[in-house]
Amino acid sequence: MSFGPKPWQQLHWDERAAANFMLGGTGAGLLVAWAVSSTVTPLWQAYVLAGMASIGLGLGAVWLEIGRKLRAIHVFFHPQTSWMTREAMVAVLLFGFGLAALASGVRVLGIAAALVALGFVFCQGRILHASKGIPAWREPTVTAFIVTTGLAEGAGAFLAATALAGGAHWAGLAFFALAVIARVLAWSRYRARLEHGASRRALDVLSPAGRMLVQLGTIVPLVFALAGLALPEFSSTARVFAGLAALGAGWYFKFVLVTRAAFNQGFALPKLPVRGSR
Amino acid sequence: MTRWAMIADLRRCVGCQTCTAACKHTNATPPEVQWRRVLDMEVGEYPEVQRVFVPVGCMHCADPPCMHVCPSTATKQRADGIVTIDYDLCIGCAYCAVACPYQARYKTDEPTFAYGDGPIQSEAARFDAGRIGVATKCTFCSDRVDAGLEKGLTPGIDPEATPACVNSCIAKALHFGDVQDPGSNVSQLLAENQFFRMHEELGTDPGFYYLWDKKAESAA
Protein backbone atom coordinates (compact mmCIF):
# COMPACT_ATOMS: atom_id res chain seq x y z
CA MET A 1 0.00 0.00 0.00
CA SER A 2 1.59 3.24 -1.08
CA PHE A 3 0.16 6.70 -0.60
CA GLY A 4 3.22 8.77 -1.27
CA PRO A 5 3.89 11.30 -3.97
CA LYS A 6 4.73 9.58 -7.19
CA PRO A 7 8.42 9.02 -7.87
CA TRP A 8 10.00 11.56 -10.16
CA GLN A 9 12.93 11.49 -12.57
CA GLN A 10 16.23 12.08 -10.82
CA LEU A 11 18.06 15.15 -12.11
CA HIS A 12 21.46 14.65 -10.50
CA TRP A 13 22.93 12.61 -13.34
CA ASP A 14 22.29 14.01 -16.80
CA GLU A 15 23.61 13.50 -20.34
CA ARG A 16 27.19 13.77 -19.15
CA ALA A 17 26.80 10.79 -16.85
CA ALA A 18 24.94 8.94 -19.60
CA ALA A 19 27.86 9.63 -21.93
CA ASN A 20 30.17 7.85 -19.54
CA PHE A 21 28.05 4.72 -19.69
CA MET A 22 27.70 4.98 -23.47
CA LEU A 23 31.31 5.73 -24.36
CA GLY A 24 32.80 3.66 -21.55
CA GLY A 25 30.83 0.57 -22.52
CA THR A 26 31.63 1.02 -26.19
CA GLY A 27 35.33 1.51 -25.55
CA ALA A 28 35.50 -1.53 -23.33
CA GLY A 29 33.54 -3.60 -25.85
CA LEU A 30 35.78 -2.41 -28.66
CA LEU A 31 38.88 -3.54 -26.78
CA VAL A 32 37.34 -6.93 -26.08
CA ALA A 33 36.15 -7.34 -29.67
CA TRP A 34 39.64 -6.50 -30.90
CA ALA A 35 41.21 -8.94 -28.42
CA VAL A 36 38.95 -11.74 -29.64
CA SER A 37 40.25 -11.29 -33.18
CA SER A 38 43.63 -9.80 -32.38
CA THR A 39 45.66 -12.38 -34.25
CA VAL A 40 44.10 -11.39 -37.59
CA THR A 41 43.74 -7.65 -37.09
CA PRO A 42 46.21 -5.38 -38.85
CA LEU A 43 46.72 -1.88 -37.52
CA TRP A 44 45.74 -3.27 -34.15
CA GLN A 45 47.10 -0.23 -32.35
CA ALA A 46 44.30 1.85 -33.87
CA TYR A 47 41.64 -0.28 -32.14
CA VAL A 48 43.40 -0.19 -28.80
CA LEU A 49 43.79 3.55 -29.11
CA ALA A 50 40.15 4.01 -30.14
CA GLY A 51 38.93 1.90 -27.23
CA MET A 52 40.96 3.88 -24.75
CA ALA A 53 39.89 7.16 -26.34
CA SER A 54 36.24 6.23 -26.04
CA ILE A 55 36.62 5.31 -22.38
CA GLY A 56 38.63 8.46 -21.77
CA LEU A 57 35.99 10.63 -23.40
CA GLY A 58 33.32 9.03 -21.24
CA LEU A 59 35.29 9.68 -18.09
CA GLY A 60 35.93 13.22 -19.30
CA ALA A 61 32.20 13.74 -19.75
CA VAL A 62 31.45 12.64 -16.20
CA TRP A 63 34.29 14.83 -14.93
CA LEU A 64 32.44 17.77 -16.43
CA GLU A 65 29.46 16.87 -14.26
CA ILE A 66 31.09 16.77 -10.86
CA GLY A 67 30.78 19.85 -8.70
CA ARG A 68 34.40 20.08 -7.57
CA LYS A 69 36.48 19.29 -10.63
CA LEU A 70 39.85 20.07 -9.09
CA ARG A 71 39.21 17.47 -6.41
CA ALA A 72 38.62 14.68 -8.89
CA ILE A 73 41.56 12.77 -7.47
CA HIS A 74 39.41 12.08 -4.38
CA VAL A 75 37.49 9.59 -6.46
CA PHE A 76 40.21 7.06 -5.62
CA PHE A 77 39.68 7.26 -1.85
CA HIS A 78 37.07 4.57 -1.24
CA PRO A 79 37.83 1.25 -2.96
CA GLN A 80 36.46 -0.68 0.03
CA THR A 81 32.83 -0.25 -1.03
CA SER A 82 32.46 2.33 -3.81
CA TRP A 83 32.09 1.00 -7.34
CA MET A 84 32.86 4.47 -8.64
CA THR A 85 36.27 4.30 -7.02
CA ARG A 86 36.78 0.81 -8.39
CA GLU A 87 35.79 1.98 -11.86
CA ALA A 88 38.38 4.76 -11.66
CA MET A 89 41.09 2.41 -10.45
CA VAL A 90 40.33 -0.15 -13.14
CA ALA A 91 40.46 2.66 -15.70
CA VAL A 92 43.97 3.57 -14.56
CA LEU A 93 45.04 -0.05 -14.93
CA LEU A 94 43.40 -0.23 -18.33
CA PHE A 95 45.16 2.87 -19.58
CA GLY A 96 48.42 1.58 -18.15
CA PHE A 97 48.23 -1.67 -20.09
CA GLY A 98 46.91 0.05 -23.20
CA LEU A 99 49.57 2.71 -23.31
CA ALA A 100 52.26 0.14 -22.59
CA ALA A 101 50.93 -1.94 -25.49
CA LEU A 102 51.06 1.04 -27.83
CA ALA A 103 54.50 2.11 -26.66
CA SER A 104 56.06 -1.34 -26.80
CA GLY A 105 54.10 -2.84 -29.67
CA VAL A 106 53.43 -5.97 -27.62
CA ARG A 107 49.93 -7.24 -28.40
CA VAL A 108 49.67 -9.25 -25.21
CA LEU A 109 49.64 -6.02 -23.25
CA GLY A 110 46.71 -4.87 -25.39
CA ILE A 111 44.91 -8.12 -24.63
CA ALA A 112 45.55 -7.51 -20.95
CA ALA A 113 43.97 -4.08 -21.37
CA ALA A 114 40.96 -5.76 -22.96
CA LEU A 115 40.61 -8.12 -20.00
CA VAL A 116 40.74 -5.14 -17.64
CA ALA A 117 38.14 -3.44 -19.86
CA LEU A 118 35.75 -6.24 -18.99
CA GLY A 119 36.26 -5.26 -15.37
CA PHE A 120 35.64 -1.63 -16.25
CA VAL A 121 32.27 -2.27 -17.83
CA PHE A 122 31.37 -4.59 -14.95
CA CYS A 123 32.09 -1.72 -12.55
CA GLN A 124 29.74 0.46 -14.56
CA GLY A 125 26.99 -2.10 -14.14
CA ARG A 126 27.62 -2.28 -10.42
CA ILE A 127 27.56 1.51 -10.14
CA LEU A 128 23.96 1.43 -11.29
CA HIS A 129 23.11 -1.60 -9.18
CA ALA A 130 24.39 0.16 -6.04
CA SER A 131 22.14 3.17 -6.67
CA LYS A 132 19.55 2.14 -4.14
CA GLY A 133 17.46 5.25 -4.64
CA ILE A 134 16.59 4.38 -8.25
CA PRO A 135 14.50 1.20 -8.49
CA ALA A 136 15.22 0.67 -12.20
CA TRP A 137 18.96 0.83 -11.56
CA ARG A 138 19.21 -1.18 -8.38
CA GLU A 139 17.64 -4.23 -10.05
CA PRO A 140 20.48 -6.80 -9.93
CA THR A 141 20.09 -7.91 -13.55
CA VAL A 142 21.07 -4.42 -14.71
CA THR A 143 24.74 -5.40 -14.32
CA ALA A 144 24.54 -8.19 -16.89
CA PHE A 145 22.67 -5.88 -19.21
CA ILE A 146 25.24 -3.09 -18.93
CA VAL A 147 28.08 -5.55 -19.57
CA THR A 148 26.44 -7.19 -22.57
CA THR A 149 25.32 -3.95 -24.15
CA GLY A 150 28.82 -2.56 -23.76
CA LEU A 151 30.19 -5.63 -25.51
CA ALA A 152 27.55 -5.39 -28.25
CA GLU A 153 28.25 -1.71 -28.82
CA GLY A 154 31.98 -2.29 -28.95
CA ALA A 155 31.57 -5.30 -31.21
CA GLY A 156 29.41 -3.15 -33.47
CA ALA A 157 32.02 -0.42 -33.59
CA PHE A 158 34.71 -3.01 -34.30
CA LEU A 159 32.66 -4.66 -37.05
CA ALA A 160 31.99 -1.33 -38.74
CA ALA A 161 35.60 -0.21 -38.39
CA THR A 162 37.06 -3.43 -39.80
CA ALA A 163 34.60 -3.29 -42.68
CA LEU A 164 35.62 0.26 -43.47
CA ALA A 165 39.26 -0.75 -43.21
CA GLY A 166 38.62 -3.45 -45.78
CA GLY A 167 39.18 -6.44 -43.56
CA ALA A 168 36.94 -9.41 -42.95
CA HIS A 169 37.27 -11.15 -39.61
CA TRP A 170 35.19 -14.18 -38.83
CA ALA A 171 36.08 -13.97 -35.19
CA GLY A 172 34.89 -10.36 -35.02
CA LEU A 173 31.66 -11.22 -36.83
CA ALA A 174 30.99 -14.22 -34.61
CA PHE A 175 31.70 -12.17 -31.48
CA PHE A 176 29.36 -9.48 -32.75
CA ALA A 177 26.52 -11.95 -33.28
CA LEU A 178 27.04 -13.50 -29.87
CA ALA A 179 27.20 -10.10 -28.19
CA VAL A 180 23.96 -8.74 -29.66
CA ILE A 181 22.16 -11.99 -28.84
CA ALA A 182 23.54 -11.94 -25.29
CA ARG A 183 22.41 -8.33 -24.99
CA VAL A 184 18.86 -9.01 -26.05
CA LEU A 185 18.69 -11.96 -23.65
CA ALA A 186 19.99 -9.78 -20.83
CA TRP A 187 17.43 -7.10 -21.69
CA SER A 188 14.68 -9.71 -21.68
CA ARG A 189 15.69 -10.88 -18.19
CA TYR A 190 16.08 -7.30 -16.92
CA ARG A 191 12.71 -6.35 -18.35
CA ALA A 192 11.01 -9.32 -16.73
CA ARG A 193 12.42 -8.35 -13.35
CA LEU A 194 11.30 -4.74 -13.76
CA GLU A 195 7.82 -6.00 -14.60
CA HIS A 196 7.50 -7.53 -11.15
CA GLY A 197 9.39 -4.83 -9.30
CA ALA A 198 8.57 -1.33 -8.21
CA SER A 199 9.62 0.19 -11.49
CA ARG A 200 6.42 0.24 -13.52
CA ARG A 201 6.89 3.85 -14.56
CA ALA A 202 10.48 3.20 -15.55
CA LEU A 203 9.36 0.26 -17.62
CA ASP A 204 6.86 2.45 -19.44
CA VAL A 205 9.79 4.62 -20.51
CA LEU A 206 12.19 1.78 -21.16
CA SER A 207 9.85 -0.41 -23.19
CA PRO A 208 9.97 1.68 -26.39
CA ALA A 209 13.75 1.87 -26.12
CA GLY A 210 13.75 -1.88 -25.53
CA ARG A 211 11.72 -2.48 -28.67
CA MET A 212 14.29 -0.44 -30.56
CA LEU A 213 17.03 -2.52 -28.97
CA VAL A 214 15.36 -5.71 -30.16
CA GLN A 215 14.45 -4.52 -33.64
CA LEU A 216 17.13 -2.02 -34.63
CA GLY A 217 19.80 -3.28 -32.27
CA THR A 218 19.43 -7.02 -32.73
CA ILE A 219 17.26 -8.19 -35.63
CA VAL A 220 18.38 -5.59 -38.18
CA PRO A 221 22.11 -6.02 -37.45
CA LEU A 222 21.87 -9.80 -37.61
CA VAL A 223 19.95 -9.63 -40.89
CA PHE A 224 22.54 -7.26 -42.31
CA ALA A 225 25.35 -9.48 -41.12
CA LEU A 226 23.76 -12.54 -42.72
CA ALA A 227 23.04 -10.58 -45.90
CA GLY A 228 26.68 -9.62 -46.01
CA LEU A 229 27.64 -13.26 -45.84
CA ALA A 230 25.19 -14.21 -48.58
CA LEU A 231 26.07 -11.30 -50.85
CA PRO A 232 29.84 -10.82 -50.71
CA GLU A 233 29.74 -7.75 -52.96
CA PHE A 234 27.72 -5.92 -50.26
CA SER A 235 29.58 -7.46 -47.37
CA SER A 236 31.43 -4.34 -46.26
CA THR A 237 28.40 -2.08 -46.48
CA ALA A 238 26.23 -4.59 -44.65
CA ARG A 239 28.74 -4.95 -41.84
CA VAL A 240 29.05 -1.19 -41.45
CA PHE A 241 25.29 -0.83 -41.16
CA ALA A 242 25.01 -3.84 -38.84
CA GLY A 243 27.67 -2.49 -36.53
CA LEU A 244 26.34 1.04 -36.43
CA ALA A 245 22.78 -0.15 -35.78
CA ALA A 246 23.87 -2.25 -32.82
CA LEU A 247 25.98 0.62 -31.51
CA GLY A 248 23.30 3.28 -31.92
CA ALA A 249 20.54 1.19 -30.34
CA GLY A 250 22.72 0.50 -27.33
CA TRP A 251 23.62 4.15 -26.91
CA TYR A 252 20.01 5.23 -27.18
CA PHE A 253 18.89 2.70 -24.60
CA LYS A 254 21.53 3.74 -22.09
CA PHE A 255 20.74 7.39 -22.64
CA VAL A 256 17.09 6.67 -21.83
CA LEU A 257 18.02 4.50 -18.85
CA VAL A 258 20.09 7.24 -17.22
CA THR A 259 18.21 10.38 -18.18
CA ARG A 260 14.58 9.33 -18.68
CA ALA A 261 13.84 6.14 -16.77
CA ALA A 262 15.65 6.91 -13.55
CA PHE A 263 12.62 7.50 -11.36
CA ASN A 264 13.51 7.74 -7.73
CA GLN A 265 11.99 5.80 -4.85
CA GLY A 266 9.40 8.41 -3.96
CA PHE A 267 7.73 8.20 -0.57
CA ALA A 268 5.31 5.66 0.79
CA LEU A 269 3.27 5.26 3.94
CA PRO A 270 2.62 1.66 4.93
CA LYS A 271 0.21 2.94 7.61
CA LEU A 272 -2.00 5.98 7.94
CA PRO A 273 -2.23 7.97 11.17
CA VAL A 274 -5.14 7.10 13.43
CA ARG A 275 -6.01 10.53 14.72
CA GLY A 276 -7.72 11.15 18.01
CA SER A 277 -6.02 8.18 19.60
CA ARG A 278 -3.65 10.28 21.60
CA MET B 1 26.10 2.64 22.52
CA THR B 2 24.15 5.76 21.61
CA ARG B 3 22.11 5.98 18.44
CA TRP B 4 20.41 9.29 17.87
CA ALA B 5 17.05 8.96 16.21
CA MET B 6 14.10 11.14 15.34
CA ILE B 7 10.41 10.45 15.68
CA ALA B 8 7.58 12.10 13.80
CA ASP B 9 4.12 11.58 15.22
CA LEU B 10 1.92 11.61 12.13
CA ARG B 11 -1.17 12.06 14.28
CA ARG B 12 0.15 15.36 15.55
CA CYS B 13 1.87 16.96 12.56
CA VAL B 14 -0.27 19.76 11.12
CA GLY B 15 1.98 20.59 8.18
CA CYS B 16 2.79 24.09 9.38
CA GLN B 17 6.34 23.83 7.98
CA THR B 18 7.79 25.55 11.04
CA CYS B 19 10.40 22.80 11.27
CA THR B 20 11.36 23.48 7.66
CA ALA B 21 11.74 27.18 8.37
CA ALA B 22 13.67 26.54 11.58
CA CYS B 23 16.04 24.22 9.75
CA LYS B 24 16.63 26.75 7.00
CA HIS B 25 17.24 29.47 9.54
CA THR B 26 19.61 27.36 11.62
CA ASN B 27 21.59 25.88 8.76
CA ALA B 28 21.39 28.78 6.30
CA THR B 29 20.39 26.56 3.40
CA PRO B 30 19.79 28.27 0.05
CA PRO B 31 16.42 28.48 -1.72
CA GLU B 32 14.96 25.13 -2.80
CA VAL B 33 17.17 23.26 -0.35
CA GLN B 34 15.16 21.84 2.52
CA TRP B 35 17.03 19.47 4.76
CA ARG B 36 13.79 19.09 6.72
CA ARG B 37 10.76 18.87 4.47
CA VAL B 38 7.13 18.19 5.27
CA LEU B 39 5.23 16.35 2.56
CA ASP B 40 1.57 17.15 2.15
CA MET B 41 -0.08 13.93 1.02
CA GLU B 42 -3.70 13.46 0.03
CA VAL B 43 -4.71 9.87 0.44
CA GLY B 44 -7.65 7.87 -0.84
CA GLU B 45 -10.60 8.77 -3.06
CA TYR B 46 -13.66 10.85 -2.36
CA PRO B 47 -15.39 10.60 0.06
CA GLU B 48 -12.78 8.60 1.93
CA VAL B 49 -9.97 11.11 1.71
CA GLN B 50 -7.34 11.81 4.33
CA ARG B 51 -4.62 14.41 4.39
CA VAL B 52 -1.32 13.40 5.95
CA PHE B 53 1.69 15.58 6.68
CA VAL B 54 4.94 13.66 6.64
CA PRO B 55 8.22 15.19 7.79
CA VAL B 56 11.11 13.75 5.78
CA GLY B 57 14.83 14.28 5.37
CA CYS B 58 17.98 12.32 5.95
CA MET B 59 17.04 9.20 7.88
CA HIS B 60 20.57 8.72 9.26
CA CYS B 61 20.41 5.07 8.29
CA ALA B 62 22.42 2.51 10.22
CA ASP B 63 23.40 1.01 6.88
CA PRO B 64 23.52 4.12 4.68
CA PRO B 65 23.78 3.44 0.95
CA CYS B 66 25.06 6.98 0.43
CA MET B 67 28.15 6.19 2.50
CA HIS B 68 28.89 2.93 0.73
CA VAL B 69 28.79 4.46 -2.75
CA CYS B 70 30.69 7.66 -1.90
CA PRO B 71 33.99 7.47 -3.83
CA SER B 72 35.74 10.14 -1.78
CA THR B 73 34.90 8.98 1.78
CA ALA B 74 33.27 12.37 2.31
CA THR B 75 30.19 10.65 3.69
CA LYS B 76 30.87 9.03 7.02
CA GLN B 77 28.95 7.67 9.94
CA ARG B 78 29.69 8.67 13.51
CA ALA B 79 29.65 6.20 16.37
CA ASP B 80 26.35 7.71 17.50
CA GLY B 81 24.73 6.93 14.12
CA ILE B 82 24.73 10.44 12.64
CA VAL B 83 25.68 10.37 8.95
CA THR B 84 27.93 13.28 8.03
CA ILE B 85 29.42 14.86 4.91
CA ASP B 86 32.92 16.32 4.82
CA TYR B 87 32.53 19.24 2.43
CA ASP B 88 36.29 19.42 1.95
CA LEU B 89 36.45 15.86 0.62
CA CYS B 90 33.24 15.73 -1.42
CA ILE B 91 33.74 15.98 -5.18
CA GLY B 92 30.08 16.61 -5.95
CA CYS B 93 29.57 13.53 -8.09
CA ALA B 94 26.02 13.13 -6.71
CA TYR B 95 26.37 9.37 -6.53
CA CYS B 96 25.09 9.60 -2.96
CA ALA B 97 22.03 11.48 -4.20
CA VAL B 98 20.99 8.68 -6.53
CA ALA B 99 21.83 6.07 -3.92
CA CYS B 100 19.64 7.66 -1.23
CA PRO B 101 16.10 6.18 -1.26
CA TYR B 102 14.81 9.19 0.68
CA GLN B 103 15.75 12.00 -1.73
CA ALA B 104 17.48 13.66 1.19
CA ARG B 105 20.56 14.98 -0.55
CA TYR B 106 21.01 18.25 -2.34
CA LYS B 107 23.70 19.68 -4.55
CA THR B 108 23.84 23.37 -5.37
CA ASP B 109 26.18 24.15 -8.25
CA GLU B 110 25.76 27.93 -8.16
CA PRO B 111 25.10 30.32 -5.28
CA THR B 112 21.39 31.10 -5.11
CA PHE B 113 19.66 33.69 -2.99
CA ALA B 114 16.13 34.42 -1.93
CA TYR B 115 15.86 37.76 -3.73
CA GLY B 116 17.54 37.92 -7.10
CA ASP B 117 21.19 37.54 -7.93
CA GLY B 118 22.68 39.09 -4.82
CA PRO B 119 22.45 38.01 -1.20
CA ILE B 120 20.53 39.93 1.38
CA GLN B 121 22.49 40.94 4.47
CA SER B 122 21.81 37.78 6.45
CA GLU B 123 22.59 35.55 3.48
CA ALA B 124 25.86 37.36 2.85
CA ALA B 125 26.84 36.98 6.49
CA ARG B 126 26.23 33.25 6.52
CA PHE B 127 27.18 32.28 2.97
CA ASP B 128 29.48 29.25 2.90
CA ALA B 129 31.35 28.77 -0.37
CA GLY B 130 32.37 25.33 0.84
CA ARG B 131 28.85 24.11 0.29
CA ILE B 132 28.79 24.97 -3.41
CA GLY B 133 29.21 22.03 -5.78
CA VAL B 134 29.07 19.41 -3.03
CA ALA B 135 26.38 17.23 -1.52
CA THR B 136 24.56 18.56 1.53
CA LYS B 137 21.89 17.16 3.81
CA CYS B 138 20.42 17.17 7.32
CA THR B 139 23.04 16.77 10.03
CA PHE B 140 20.62 16.11 12.91
CA CYS B 141 22.10 19.44 14.07
CA SER B 142 25.15 17.48 15.21
CA ASP B 143 26.91 20.69 16.25
CA ARG B 144 24.08 21.49 18.68
CA VAL B 145 24.04 17.90 19.92
CA ASP B 146 27.80 17.87 20.50
CA ALA B 147 27.89 21.29 22.14
CA GLY B 148 25.00 20.31 24.38
CA LEU B 149 26.62 17.05 25.42
CA GLU B 150 29.78 18.93 26.35
CA LYS B 151 27.68 21.01 28.71
CA GLY B 152 26.12 17.91 30.23
CA LEU B 153 22.78 18.47 28.54
CA THR B 154 20.52 15.75 27.14
CA PRO B 155 19.70 15.94 23.44
CA GLY B 156 15.99 15.67 22.89
CA ILE B 157 15.23 16.96 26.36
CA ASP B 158 17.25 20.14 26.65
CA PRO B 159 16.47 22.50 23.76
CA GLU B 160 20.04 23.74 23.57
CA ALA B 161 21.19 20.22 22.69
CA THR B 162 18.27 19.37 20.41
CA PRO B 163 17.90 19.73 16.63
CA ALA B 164 16.27 22.98 15.59
CA CYS B 165 13.36 21.31 13.81
CA VAL B 166 12.36 19.43 16.96
CA ASN B 167 12.63 22.55 19.11
CA SER B 168 10.42 24.49 16.73
CA CYS B 169 7.61 21.99 16.32
CA ILE B 170 4.39 23.63 17.49
CA ALA B 171 2.50 20.37 17.89
CA LYS B 172 5.16 18.29 19.62
CA ALA B 173 5.11 15.98 16.64
CA LEU B 174 8.88 15.77 16.35
CA HIS B 175 11.05 14.11 18.97
CA PHE B 176 14.75 13.39 19.20
CA GLY B 177 16.73 11.11 21.46
CA ASP B 178 18.82 8.04 22.00
CA VAL B 179 16.90 5.06 20.70
CA GLN B 180 19.37 2.66 22.34
CA ASP B 181 18.57 3.99 25.79
CA PRO B 182 15.43 2.18 27.00
CA GLY B 183 14.63 5.05 29.31
CA SER B 184 14.90 7.81 26.72
CA ASN B 185 11.99 9.89 25.51
CA VAL B 186 12.07 8.29 22.07
CA SER B 187 12.27 4.75 23.44
CA GLN B 188 9.24 5.46 25.60
CA LEU B 189 7.28 6.73 22.61
CA LEU B 190 8.21 3.70 20.56
CA ALA B 191 7.18 1.42 23.40
CA GLU B 192 3.79 3.07 23.73
CA ASN B 193 2.92 3.51 20.06
CA GLN B 194 2.81 1.66 16.78
CA PHE B 195 5.35 2.91 14.33
CA PHE B 196 6.95 2.29 10.95
CA ARG B 197 10.04 3.45 9.14
CA MET B 198 10.10 4.64 5.54
CA HIS B 199 11.12 2.05 2.92
CA GLU B 200 12.22 -0.36 5.62
CA GLU B 201 12.20 -3.16 3.06
CA LEU B 202 15.35 -1.72 1.50
CA GLY B 203 17.37 -2.72 4.54
CA THR B 204 18.85 0.67 5.31
CA ASP B 205 17.75 0.57 8.97
CA PRO B 206 16.66 4.23 9.04
CA GLY B 207 16.90 6.25 12.24
CA PHE B 208 13.64 8.10 11.65
CA TYR B 209 10.42 6.62 13.05
CA TYR B 210 6.84 7.48 12.25
CA LEU B 211 4.18 7.00 14.92
CA TRP B 212 0.72 6.28 13.50
CA ASP B 213 -1.37 4.78 16.32
CA LYS B 214 -1.21 3.91 19.98
CA LYS B 215 -0.49 0.33 20.88
CA ALA B 216 -3.40 -1.86 21.85
CA GLU B 217 -3.81 -1.96 25.64
CA SER B 218 -2.93 -5.65 25.80
CA ALA B 219 0.18 -5.17 23.71
CA ALA B 220 1.35 -1.98 25.40
Tell me about this structure.
- Chain A is mainly alpha-helical and 278 residues long.
- Chain A has a single domain (15-259), classed as Formate dehydrogenase/DMSO reductase fold.
- Chain A is 72% helix and 0% strand.
- Chain A has helices at residues 15-36, 44-65, 83-104, 107-129, 135-138, 142-164, 170-196, 200-230, 235-259.
- The longest helix of chain A is centred in the last third of the chain and has 31 residues, at 200-230.
- Chain A is globular, with a radius of gyration of 20 Å.
- Chain B has 220 residues and is of the alpha+beta class.
- Chain B has one domain (4-212): Alpha-Beta Plaits (2-Layer Sandwich).
- Helices cover 22% and strands 24% of the residues of chain B.
- Chain B has helices at residues 18-27, 65-69, 95-99, 121-126, 142-150, 164-168, 185-192; strands at residues 4-9, 36-45, 48-57, 75-77, 83-85, 106-107, 135-136, 174-178, 193-196, 208-214.
- A four-stranded mixed beta sheet of chain B has the order 8-1-10-9.
- The mean pLDDT of chain B is 95.
- Chains A and B meet through helix 3 of A and strand 2, strand 3, helix 2, helix 3 and strand 9 of B.
